[in-house]
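Hi everyone,

Forwarding the result from last night's run.
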Amino acid sequence: MMRTKEHNKKISNALKGKTKSLSHRKNISKSAKKRMTIPENNPNYKGDKVGYIGIHIWLIKVYGLAKHCEKCLKVGKKKNNKWTIEWALRHGYVCERKRENFIKLCKSCHRKYDNTKEWRENISKSKRNKNKENKEENLNE
């Protein structure tokens, strides 16, 4: 049965202000927890189409914070409310939900690792595009 927006609005207005019993709230919570424990059941789950931030959140959830740098073996610590060891995508690998595609690097090693000709070209392209967009916005104002 497909409900129209008007029908949904009527139901919503009819239920406004009515409180649910404690047992009903617990049942809702229980079913939501069951649904959310399996990532594929979560309505926000994107699978392999996940973005940069989503992959890093997944890495931290599944494998935890990176404790030490795999290159210089420096041990991580919290500095200015940020962790000093980061998850870095290995060269030549695709950004997907696979642990072997990532390595743990301290900020210094991560910058050195990423500082390639291709990376510098991409950064300069993005800066040029931002400058171009800013100029266009200023012209439109």
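Residues 117-140 form the longest helix (24 residues).

Cheers,
N.
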